Amino acid sequence: METKLVQPLLLVLVVLSIGLVSWLSRDKNEEAVFKKLKLFPRWFKFVGLFIVICGVSVPWIFQGLLVDGGNHLGSIYIIFGLFLICFSRDKIEDEMSNIIRLKSFYRSFGAGVVGFFFLTYIENSISDDFSQLSADTLLAVILGFYLVSYYVTKSKIRSAE
């Protein structure tokens, strides 16, 4: 039952990913490319938010999707939804938002690596055998910290104006 449902869901995720990558790699006007980052349209934020909500709730509703009590398929969908939210345009997209976006990525990557090592240390200090956290944990920490850093910095700058 669970493998019959998991394989089509993963296939949908792969097809969506291929479509998004092909959309981003499409040729555009050179002048527009140099002025702006290649980002998804604004409505992808809402699609990403819907995917995150579904990734959190659906496996808990359908208990057959849980593997060893964990929401592994849901975590893949959560990361995909966070990716869509992170790489979507805002209502007002200018040079300042591009700079804030870049600084937020620097901060999130550094905090994600430090947090990854810190969480690995905490997990291994509690248990006797060495285990490393998974890559989806690292991606979720980086994308989550990026979103928090981006919107906090943007709100501080907008309120100062």
From TrEMBL:
It comes from the Bacteria. Keywords: Membrane, Transmembrane, Transmembrane helix. The chain crosses the membrane at residues 6-24, 44-62, 74-92, 104-122, 134-153. This is DUF1453 domain-containing protein.
